[in-house]
Amino acid sequence: MCAEHIISQSRFSMLEGKIDSRILRNLKDMGFEKPTQIQAITLPHMLLDEDLIGAAKTGSGKTLAFLVPVVDKLIQMKFTKEKGVGCIIISPTRELALQTNEVLKMVLRDINLSYGLFVGGEKKLKETLLLQKGVNIVVGTPGRILDHLKSTEKFKCHNLKILILDEADKLLEAGFQNHIEGIIKKLPKNRQTVLFSATIDDKVENLARLALRSDPKLICIQDDK
Ligand code: ADP
Ligand code: MG
């Protein structure tokens, strides 16, 4: 089922003209010159709005594999605060959501898109106020995101274009299947959904069947870096 092991020699600078130049500059400033395999192989599919499952071991760079195209696409779509949420990124734990949020902050330097972290343990009121002002990229844990979708009137997600299920194996291990089902029910159907995971098993495949459009691309990197 896996795509072939493809060795990529590309550099981020080769994406000039294809990806917003501020993103490329920010990647350079973060010290990244070459995309990892999962980043190089998933990027064109992500940019083409395809649903996909990206599997690669922990540490292979899956975070930027989705953050780079997400940010580029929302820039292209001219997302503003008034448009509300364009992308939701679901993480299994508060710590992972925090890490993703930190990377997002660096990718977004000098880019006018709003973002926010939505995790248990934080003050909900602060998050609610943020949602009222307008958040383009939501990073959070399933429980808190579902909570806001149910109870925060100003969680404007009718314009949502992309849903990312990050660390899907861990999401399921933590018992979040029902939360994710609840979130999906509240989101527009006409969206791109992308699932990243270190491992793929029957449970992850079932989640993909539930959340992704039929016939998603499966990209599986056996041995990155
Ligand atoms: P995963 O989600 O696959 O476990 P992460 O996205 O957390 O992996 O990335 C793992 C590490 O690799 C991080 O320290 C990150 O900064 C680094 N990294 C990501 N992309 C690149 C790249 N293109 N070149 C070098 N290092 C990278
Ligand atoms: Mg990860």
From TrEMBL:
A motif (Q motif) lies at residues 12-40. The Q motif is unique to and characteristic of the DEAD box family of RNA helicases and controls ATP binding and hydrolysis. It comes from the Eukaryota. RNA helicase. Residues 43-218 form the Helicase ATP-binding domain. Belongs to the DEAD box helicase family. This is ATP-dependent RNA helicase. Residues 12-40 form the DEAD-box RNA helicase Q domain.
